[in-house]
Design a protein that fits this description.
Number of domains: 3
Number of strands: 16
CATH architecture of the largest domain: Alpha-Beta Barrel
CATH class of the largest domain: Alpha Beta
Bound molecules: phosphoenolpyruvate, magnesium ion
Helix content: 40-55%
Distance between the termini: 20 Å
Oligomer: single chain
Strand content: 5-15%
């Protein structure tokens, strides 16, 4: 029931994952990096071990930070000043403290941060009343270490999101991709965050996980919205409504029902061929992040996996996945797909994706740094080789292809191919089965790769255009930076021209080309992509239904005319309107649902 004494309030952002959710707020405040009392929270007996583990991990992380700090400043300051960190390390290594916190978690059923804070408070109070000036001064050291431990603890507390007690809508300043992949799909109805953009990996994950979400919300929601307030999230048009009136709630209940009916209709059509009215068949494949996504992909009638983002096998884990466990994952994926092709992208860490187990260095411009293939070739070749070995081995079980991310020059492909040849020899010496003819393709995500497509087409088996990055790198806008998101236009004619260059090079060299960026799953761009000659569209499984319906209502000839016109446009808006006009004419029900407010 809505509360009539509180006013309804609407906030606007960007719809990142479609769907309507009506529920109650779970507010996630920023991590405290100062010494502040955490919220008193009780836990159940089952959570005791988890909290103790978190405390141990936070101590480990703090120890690593302090040692790193100590190393970094050792050369710059006097030895005795650097030894201040010895004192800090002593606190982190104090066994008595560790046992006291463990006892408190166990006996008082409290979270690790509350237990730790209470014990530190006791020490600090005792030390503050002492006469000895030296001891008194140590209070600030203790507070310093304590705030580090608390910050690390609260960071490790984020996975708390994977064991919510009841259904909630999360409100936060930010959720990282590793926070998001851990969300409990059954309990998190939706989320709304202040940061991010439509193509951030957090948004991509939300769509895969079918969690309605809104990003880039204006209006300081974290301090305005309270825990437990009633809220509606409209992931279609990108709004959230706090304390909705009864009238608004009813209208949204209706919209949610219509949405449900719409998706049921689309699922019914999932066996229909994705063929245009004039007889051109387009391959419709899925982008997946975890093996669980395969079920949705199958439900919506996928013809294979066009992009498996393997980095999530490495994220949120202290240990790297073993070769055997990777072979197992890829083999079961091949089996699940029943003979349909499976394209696995090699590790794409860097940019906005962080991986604890790889202990990467911080970079000023991570999207332009040692990301993806660069990292694999230069800093993590052993990890990369293990992944390639597992792909070659799993390839023996069916149609698995290797795809390389963020390629910017032919040397990178040549180097990877050499490694692959080397690994084939290794595997045959070890008598392990593998696919000697495994196909290797590249993602076209940099303007350099697009412009050099003619050359790449001669040394690879396929192209997949990653428009999310291609747009970021061509228009020079950080895809996660909400302040420049107004420039993020997939129909910017510069992008359309690059796609055309890639498609033409692929056709000339008789290799196939797909698009696997967000553009491929967005109804408004489908006429242009088909008109430009793309063979396959790979997308978040949930979008397969709408895209199939559009293809089946489209004439390729009309799409080609639209694409030709769009290529002549001077700006992205005009090009988008050409595509939208055609879409509204052939499938108005799709534009209605996607773009309609209340
Ligand atoms: C892309 O860049 O379009 C893409 C599909 O890769 P990711 O979104 O994972 O960077
Ligand atoms: Mg990319």
């Amino acid at each position: 029931m809505s509360n009539p004494t509180v006013k309804e309030k609407i906030y606007h952002g960007i719809g990142a994952s479609p769907g309507i959710a009506i529920g109650k707020v779970l507010l996630i405040k920023e991590h405290n990096t100062s010494y502040v009392k955490p919220l008193e929270t009780t836990i159940t007996a089952e959570q005791v071990d988890i909290e103790i583990k978190k405390f141990e991990l936070a101590l480990d992380k703090t120890r690593e930070e302090l040692e790193e700090l100590q190393k970094r400043i050792q050369n710059k300051i006097q030895a005795h000043e650097a030894s201040i960190f010895d004192a800090h390390l002593l606190i982190v290594d104090d066994q008595m403290l560790l046992h006291e916190v463990q006892d408190s978690i166990q006996n008082q059923l409290t979270t690790a941060d509350c237990a730790f804070f209470k014990i530190m408070e006791r020490y600090i109070t005792a030390m503050s009343v002492m006469k000895d000036a030296y001891i008194k001064e140590r209070v600030s050291d203790i507070k310093d270490v304590a705030s580090r431990v608390l910050a690390n603890l609260q960071e490790t507390r984020r996975p708390v999101l994977d064991y919510l007690e009841d259904m909630r809508i999360i409100i936060a300043h930010d959720l990282t991709p590793s926070d998001t992949v851990l969300l409990d799909r059954k309990k998190v109805q939706a989320f709304a965050i202040e940061s991010g953009s439509n193509t951030s990996h957090t948004a991509i994950l939300a769509r895969s996980m079918q969690i309605p979400s809104v990003v880039n919300i204006q209006g300081d929601i974290v301090s305005q919205i309270k825990n437990d307030e009633d809220i509606i999230v409209d992931g279609f048009i990108g709004t959230i409504i706090v304390n909705p009136t009864e009238k608004t709630r009813k209208a949204y209940q209706l919209k949610a029902k219509e949405e449900g009916r719409f998706y049921i209709d689309l699922i019914r059509e999932s066996r229909l061929r994705p063929e245009t009215l004039d007889g051109f068949t387009v391959q419709l494949a899925s982008n997946i992040e975890t093996i669980q996504d395969v079920q949705t992909a199958k439900k919506f009638g996928t013809s294979g996996v066009g992009l498996f983002r393997t980095e999530y096998m490495y994220m949120g884990n202290k240990a790297l996945p073993s070769e055997e466990s990777q072979v197992e994952t890829f083999t079961s994926l091949i089996k699940e797909m029943n003979g349909e092709p499976v394209i696995v992208r090699t590790l794409d860490i860097g940019g906005d994706k962080y991986c604890e187990s790889l202990s990467l260095r911080k970079e000023a411009n991570p999207f332009l740094g040692l990301r993806a293939i660069r990292l694999c070739l230069h800093e993590c070749q052993d990890v990369f080789r293990t992944q390639l070995r597992s792909l070659l081995r799993a390839g023996a079980a069916g149609d698995l292809k290797i795809m390389l991310p963020m390629i910017s020059c032919v040397e990178e492909v040549i180097e990877v191919k050499k490694i692959i040849e080397d690994l084939k020899k290794e595997l045959s010496n070890e008598n392990l089965p593998f696919n000697p003819d495994i196909e290797v393709g590249i993602m076209i995500e940099t303007p350099a790769a697009a412009l050099m497509a003619e050359h790449f087409a001669k040394i690879v088996d396929f192209f997949s255009i990653g428009t999310n990055d291609l747009i970021q790198y061509t228009i020079a806008i950080d895809r996660d930076n909400e302040r420049v998101s107004y420039l993020y236009e997939p129909t910017n004619p510069a992008i359309l021209h690059l796609i055309k260059i890639v498609v033409d090079a692929a056709k000339k060299n008789r290799i196939w080309v797909s698009v696997c960026g967000q553009m491929a799953g967005s109804p408004q761009y489908i006429p242009l992509l088909l008109g430009l000659g793309v063979h396959e569209l790979s997308m978040v499984p949930m979008s397969l239904g709408s895209v199939r319906r559009i293809i089946r209502k489209l004439k390729m000839h009309e799409a080609e005319v639209a694409a030709e016109k769009a290529l002549q446009c001077a700006n992205g808006k005009d090009a988008l309107n050409i595509s939208l006009e055609l879409l509204k004419k052939i499938a108005p029900e799709i534009t209605d649902l996607a773009f309609r407010g209340l």
